[in-house]
């Protein structure tokens, strides 16, 4: 509206400027470099970023004395194993029931951590000192989580540098660094997810910055830290193959291909080499992939199978009430009354075997990967990565609820793309974080997790919502919008229910003991499944016509 | 005019400038300050680089006219009718932000919209082709005041794809920053400093961020929620006397009182098994415990079973106990803080009010004692705070009731009694014999009535008259010695040299300590009463404001009085430092981060937490100690490790922090020798006590200064003294704002001493100017500072 056509007389001057532009830019660079050189070392961290670090560190420090799960003892035991045993015995030791079942890089990582630990308190690395929980070990292990999470912080910081829209990216980065998922799983429950998602984000960042080789290497490293990231591997494979190893016209870039292949093989040799030499690979694999577990974890991860199991339970109730002649699997009836522990056997529906879940997962992923193959851009890659993790989470065999972070972290990067992504992000984040709540069941920590998550979603939701809001344009979309809001509002009711139910039904039997867990699982599963459908739809349909911010990369 | 168009004074176009044909005024006019842009000035100014003299045209056409005149407009009257305006014609990049991002990236230029109240608009497909001019951002006055005044603001520069480096001067240029108007090019020299982030107050930045993102209305709820979160997290930790039978600690005492009050009749409350944590707080604590006990027994009777529940430490009962502290905090203290922000800080901008709220909400000492160590101090402090809030609104009777409730919750509130009592007395004097006498009678009646209500179960006809002695002897335990443990007060510190207990008997010591305490708070009492007499009105029909002019003295008087009790009185605990801390933090909460008030407040808060370190260490709250201090200091933007400026308080702070750091390091490295097991607590006392003594002296000094600011040094008739007061206040206010508030003043910026500025700020912030003197000021209406103040307040 305010654009004035350039008058011809200005054209020449304009050309001059084009020429002098370079000089100006150089000037600017020079001034920048002189500014830089004044300080002997530049952290390149701004005040507000220090603030985020201070807030989160202060809160995490305060969580030192909070509840910790058996994972804490698991990791302490690994410190002891890697410190006191030779490498050849690492994957054979059974002193504790918490045997080492992460890939070798993580074992090396624990080895590194165990050295300072032995100075701080030698009892930490004593193999037979089971369930040691003195303040020294608590403080030390909690502290290592905070320290290693700085990898995540550094990666997120680099994301804001050179982002398309730095102010929005800053919100997203901050939201990831302060993610309630990390707070719950890492700083209360106890794990090292922040560190490993830091590596994942470095890898994604390298993909954004065009350094695909390093991206691939970092992902290979990550796989050797924790093998659950295999959920994401198909997207990496296709992306690197299409965008790095093949030219746009489809010709093989042999140099790229060889360098990537060699680098990845090198990483795996660094990780598995010692065990390969010692001939321990089968033992290692049997530790990493124990195929003796059931369809659902003890607490159903909020995925497709949780819904199927719930439907089966309802059908069972219905059948026994109606007295119909549906064939009922008696062991399934027993399974349902046993609550949620152990293998899941359906009473009414046909049983599910690992191969079924595998087939469904792969076929869903194939659709996504086909799309990625034909549009191997950064944004498409991140979406496909999210969807791969999403599909594995929803349809995989024996999925842990903690794996929901595999969805939430890459999805956050897309949150501000446009309203469709944002809404998916909100639904998935709220449902995903809520589904993590049952991990923390002690009363004091429960309040903390709820207040923290509520604050987090407020701080993330409102600014981003204002940033990307779009009106629903048609009646079905209006209805859908309303339903989604209703669903999100339902979490308040669900929270009230799960909190009050144990108090109010103190007298009633243990049969209903699992009802809050079941309700949580099913309600979150609905949201996560819907989020998946949404995201797949957006990914497959709208990408061509719509150009978001990340499309410019 | 010359300056506006960037011409050199002789009217010649500089060789590097290019005058382009004027464009129709309409477009630019809409976007700039209409009255400041004359049509003849619509030309296009070309930016040039300074160094090599190469011209390059920025962008055509120009769309932005930015001037720093907004701040000057109020000043123009001072300088006659020739406005002193710097008008900078700045081009903007032609393409949309998103398209030029690549160059932003590798030039490390700041993002284009740091001041916009919204993010960049969502990208549409059209924006890639069409240029979308960005409007100049006109900030509100309050935001300018708060953001620009102390910090050299960021010059936004960007590289347009077809243009050069373009600098946008924001509408204000703070005093002392280095924007030079140099041949049409703005040069920022302090970019390095900007990058270092002079503004380190996390709270302020967060408040600004919330406002910028348009979620202003969520700021206060979020602040309270965040404070609650921090409290909950601290609550996860250890507490006083955890797992230490047979006596446990303060936690068990409070829990025991719930059990006691729930199961026993009133008469036995102060007599039952006194050896095991007998009740030694006034009745309101007992009633509060009673309510908590009822709720507890409703949830789970075993938590408060008489005698059987002693030392109970189940997970659920601990959470319940923590929740009771949080609940009372939310019921009494938080509303009091909100009320404080709206009454005492009522003349300040919305953001300053929220900042004050944040500073008070996360005050580390109170958090650590109430939610870590386990006590209910926030209830007592909350009632006192409510009392002084009511005083600002003129509801003295309600104030008196609240203060009696505070006394009735914990007798420690007596530390404030000299200040509050003399304030009320001074107000009675101020109102004159008729109204004042009426008020005095009413106050007396209300106070007595409230006390009677509180103690009614121990009075006839409910109990024999002798029953009242039980609570009284329990509440004032003179039999317990001069001091307990190691506390950073005069007695304990001087005990290193003079062994008081050997020197004199307990009775003598009580008398000596009482006399010293009285001498300690006498300046505060005297100051208030003198102000009451000075402002005494001879004309009873004259309309009066809600609060008397000497109200600003009250926080100082409370600080003096409570600090003198802490230092000199009998039987002081280290936790009692919370009482002097409250007025200190109230004063700190509105202070500018440059002022010495701020430095004092932060120092005293930090040292107070440090002085409780032996206690916190015993309670197992070491990590909470670190986290709370870290969070709060970052929140208020205070850096203890900063190299000091040459002023007393900064040097003192520096020395104290060095000593504290040394002590902590020593404590980690070596264990105390067997001869002196208390070596570190004693050293702690020796570091902390001088700071508290100096704070006490400083509060007296400030009290004197404020009363001078109010009424001038000499006694005089009511009329003259009031006029003097008005002038003094006005002068101080304009001075103070001249140096801190008035950006853009350039060389004319008035720089005044810290003391004056503080005085002005204090008097102003404490609501004095707003309600009483404002009309006079606006009539005179020439002061720049005042113009600012009004704008600031109008924004809030």
Outline the secondary-structure elements.
The complex is a heterodimer of chains A (553) and B (796).
Chain A: H1 8-38, H2 47-62, H3 70-84, H4 104-120, H5 135-148, H6 150-160, H7 166-177, H8 180-190, H9 193-208, H10 212-223, H11 233-245, H12 254-277, H13 281-288, H14 304-322, H15 330-337, H16 354-374, H17 378-395, H18 405-413, H19 419-436, H20 443-468, H21 475-504, H22 515-542
Chain B: H1 2-5, H2 25-31, E1 64-67, E2 87-90, H3 101-107, H4 141-148, E3 156-159, E4 165-168, E5 180-182, E6 185-187, H5 191-196, H6 202-212, H7 219-235, H8 250-263, H9 266-269, H10 283-299, H11 315-343, H12 350-361, H13 364-374, H14 377-392, H15 396-409, H16 417-430, H17 432-455, H18 469-475, H19 490-494, H20 500-503, H21 506-534, H22 553-568, H23 578-589, H24 596-611, H25 613-619, H26 622-636, H27 648-669, H28 679-711, H29 718-741, H30 754-765, H31 768-780, H32 784-795
Organism (chain A): Pluteus cervinus
Protein name (chain A): Glycosyltransferase family 57 protein
From the structure above, extract its key features.
heterodimer, A: 553 residues, mainly alpha, 22 helices, 68% helix, globular, disordered N terminus, B: 796 residues, 3 domains, two-stranded antiparallel ribbon, 32 helices, disordered C terminus, Glycosyltransferase family 57 protein (chain A)
């Amino acid at each position: 509206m305010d654009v004035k056509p350039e008058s011809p007389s200005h054209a020449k001057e304009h050309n001059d400027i084009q020429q002098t532009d370079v000089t100006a830019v150089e000037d600017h660079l020079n001034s920048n470099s002189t500014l830089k050189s004044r300080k002997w070392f530049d952290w390149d961290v701004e005040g507000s970023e220090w603030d985020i670090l201070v807030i989160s560190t202060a809160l995490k420090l305060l969580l030192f004395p909070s509840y910790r799960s058996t994972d804490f003892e698991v990791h302490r035991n690994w410190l002891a194993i890697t410190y006191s045993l030779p490498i050849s015995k690492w994957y054979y030791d059974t002193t504790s029931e918490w045997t080492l079942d992460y890939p070798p890089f993580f074992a090396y990582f624990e080895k590194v951590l165990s050295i300072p630990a032995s100075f701080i308190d030698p009892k930490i690395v004593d193999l037979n000192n089971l369930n040691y929980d003195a303040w020294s070990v608590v403080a030390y292990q909690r502290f290592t989580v905070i320290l290693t999470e700085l990898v995540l912080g550094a990666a997120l910081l680099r994301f804001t540098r050179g982002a398309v829209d730095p102010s929005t990216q800053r919100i997203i980065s901050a939201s990831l660094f302060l993610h309630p998922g990390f707070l719950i799983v890492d700083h209360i429950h106890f794990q090292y997810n922040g560190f490993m998602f830091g590596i994942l984000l470095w890898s994604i960042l390298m993909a954004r910055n065009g350094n695909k080789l390093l991206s691939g290497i970092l992902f290979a490293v990550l796989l050797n830290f924790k093998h659950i990231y295999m959920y994401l591997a198909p997207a990496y494979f296709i992306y690197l193959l299409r965008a790095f190893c093949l030219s746009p016209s489809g010709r093989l870039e042999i140099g790229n291909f060889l360098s990537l292949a060699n680098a990845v093989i090198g990483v795996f040799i660094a990780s598995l080499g010692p065990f390969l030499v010692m001939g321990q690979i089968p033992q290692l694999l049997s530790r990493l992939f124990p195929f003796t577990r059931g369809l659902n974890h003890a607490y159903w991860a909020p995925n497709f199978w949780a819904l199927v199991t719930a439907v089966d339970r309802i059908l069972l109730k219905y059948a026994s009430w109606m007295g119909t002649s549906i064939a009922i699997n008696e062991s399934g009836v027993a399974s349902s009354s046993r609550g949620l522990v152990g293998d899941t056997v359906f009473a009414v529906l046909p049983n599910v075997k690992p191969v079924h879940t595998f087939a469904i997962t792969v076929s869903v992923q194939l659709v996504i990967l086909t799309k990625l193959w034909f549009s191997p851009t950064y944004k498409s890659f991140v979406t496909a990565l999210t969807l791969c993790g999403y599909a594995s989470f929803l349809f995989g065999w024996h999925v842990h609820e903690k794996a929901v972070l595999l969805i939430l972290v890459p999805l956050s990067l897309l949150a501000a793309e446009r309203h469709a992504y944002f809404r998916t992000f909100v639904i998935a984040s709220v449902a995903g974080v809520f589904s993590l709540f049952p991990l923390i069941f002690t009363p004091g920590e429960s309040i903390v997790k709820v207040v923290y998550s509520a604050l987090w979603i407020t701080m993330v939701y409102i600014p981003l919502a204002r940033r990307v809001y779009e009106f629903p344009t048609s009646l079905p979309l209006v209805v859908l919008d309303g339903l989604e809001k209703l669903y999100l509002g339902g979490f308040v009711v669900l929270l009230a229910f799960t909190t009050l139910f144990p108090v109010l039904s103190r007298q009633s039997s243990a049969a209903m003991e699992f009802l809050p867990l079941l309700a949580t699982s099913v309600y979150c599963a609905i949201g996560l499944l819907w989020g998946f459908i949404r995201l797949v739809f957006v990914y497959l349909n709208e990408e061509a016509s719509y150009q978001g911010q990340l499309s410019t990369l | 005019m010359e300056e506006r168009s960037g011409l050199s004074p002789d009217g010649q176009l500089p060789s590097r400038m290019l005058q382009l044909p004027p464009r129709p005024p309409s477009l630019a006019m809409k976007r700039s300050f209409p009255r400041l842009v004359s049509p003849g000035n619509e030309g296009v100014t070309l930016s040039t680089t300074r160094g090599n003299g190469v011209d390059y045209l920025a962008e055509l056409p120009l769309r932005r006219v930015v001037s720093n005149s907004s701040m000057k407009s109020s000043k123009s009257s001072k300088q006659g009718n020739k406005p002193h305006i710097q008008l900078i014609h700045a081009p903007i990049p032609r393409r949309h932000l998103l398209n030029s991002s690549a160059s932003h990236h590798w030039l490390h230029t700041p993002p284009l919209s740091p001041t916009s109240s919204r993010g960049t608009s969502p990208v549409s497909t059209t924006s890639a082709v069409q240029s979308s001019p960005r409007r100049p951002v006109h900030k509100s006055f309050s935001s300018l005041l708060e953001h620009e005044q102390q910090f050299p603001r960021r010059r936004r520069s960007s590289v347009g794809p077809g243009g050069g480096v373009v600098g946008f001067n924001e509408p204000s240029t703070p005093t002392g920053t280095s924007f030079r108007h140099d041949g049409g090019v703005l040069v920022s020299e302090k970019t390095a400093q900007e990058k270092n982030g002079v503004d380190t107050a996390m709270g302020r930045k967060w408040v600004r961020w919330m406002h910028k993102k348009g979620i202003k209305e969520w700021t206060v709820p979020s602040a309270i929620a965040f404070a609650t979160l921090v409290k909950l997290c601290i609550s996860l930790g250890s507490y006083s006397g955890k797992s230490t039978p047979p006596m446990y600690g303060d936690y068990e005492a409070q829990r025991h009182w719930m059990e006691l009050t729930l199961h026993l009749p009133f008469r036995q409350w102060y007599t039952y098994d006194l050896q095991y944590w007998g009740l030694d707080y006034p009745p309101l604590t007992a009633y509060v415990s009673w309510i908590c006990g009822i709720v507890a027994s409703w949830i789970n009777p075993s938590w408060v079973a008489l005698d059987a529940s002693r030392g109970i430490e189940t997970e659920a009962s601990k959470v319940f106990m923590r929740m009771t502290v949080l609940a009372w905090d939310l019921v009494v203290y938080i509303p009091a803080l909100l009320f404080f922000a709206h009454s005492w800080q009522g003349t300040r901008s919305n953001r300053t009010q929220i900042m004050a709220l944040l500073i008070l909400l996360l005050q580390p000492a109170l958090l650590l004692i109430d939610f870590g160590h386990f006590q209910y101090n926030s209830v007592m402090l909350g009632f006192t705070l409510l009392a002084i809030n009511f005083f600002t609104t003129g509801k003295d009777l309600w104030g008196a009731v609240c203060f009696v409730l505070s006394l009735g919750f914990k007798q420690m509130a007596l530390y404030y009694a000299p200040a509050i009592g003399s304030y009320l007395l001074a107000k009675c004097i101020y109102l004159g014999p008729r109204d004042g006498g009426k008020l005095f009678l009413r106050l007396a009646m209300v106070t007595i009535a409230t006390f009677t209500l509180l103690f009614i179960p121990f009075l006839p006809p409910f109990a024999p008259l002798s029953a009242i002695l039980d609570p009284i002897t329990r509440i004032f335990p003179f039999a317990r010695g001069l001091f307990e443990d190691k506390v950073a007060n005069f007695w304990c510190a001087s005990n290193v040299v003079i062994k008081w207990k050997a020197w004199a008997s307990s009775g003598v010591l009580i008398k000596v300590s009482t006399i010293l305490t009285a001498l300690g708070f006498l300046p505060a009492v005297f100051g208030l009463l003198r102000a009451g007499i000075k402002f005494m009105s001879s004309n009873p029909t004259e309309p009066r404001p809600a609060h008397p002019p000497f109200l600003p003295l009250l926080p100082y008087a409370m600080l003096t009085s409570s600090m003198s009790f802490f230092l000199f009185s009998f039987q002081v605990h280290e936790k009692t430092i919370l009482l002097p801390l409250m007025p200190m933090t109230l004063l700190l909460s509105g202070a500018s981060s440059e002022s010495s008030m701020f430095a004092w407040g932060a120092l005293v808060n930090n040292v107070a937490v440090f002085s409780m370190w032996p206690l916190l260490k015993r309670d197992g709250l070491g990590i909470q100690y670190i986290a709370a201090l870290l969070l709060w200091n970052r929140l208020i933007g205070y850096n203890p490790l900063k190299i000091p400026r040459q002023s007393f308080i900064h040097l003192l702070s520096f020395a104290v922090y060095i000593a504290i750091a040394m002590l902590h390091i020593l404590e980690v490295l070596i264990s105390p020798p067997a001869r002196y097991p208390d070596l570190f607590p004693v050293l702690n006392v020796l570091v902390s006590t001088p700071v508290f003594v100096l704070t006490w002296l400083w509060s007296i000094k400030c009290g004197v200064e404020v009363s001078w600011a109010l009424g001038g040094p000499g006694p005089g008739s009511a009329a003259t003294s009031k006029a003097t007061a008005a002038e003094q206040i006005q002068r101080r206010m304009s001075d103070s704002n001249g140096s801190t508030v008035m950006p853009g003043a350039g060389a004319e910026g008035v720089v005044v001493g810290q003391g004056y500025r503080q005085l002005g700020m204090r008097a102003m912030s404490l609501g004095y100017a707003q309600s009483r003197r404002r009309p006079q000021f606006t009539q005179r209406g020439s002061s720049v500072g005042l113009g600012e103040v009004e704008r600031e307040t109008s924004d809030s």
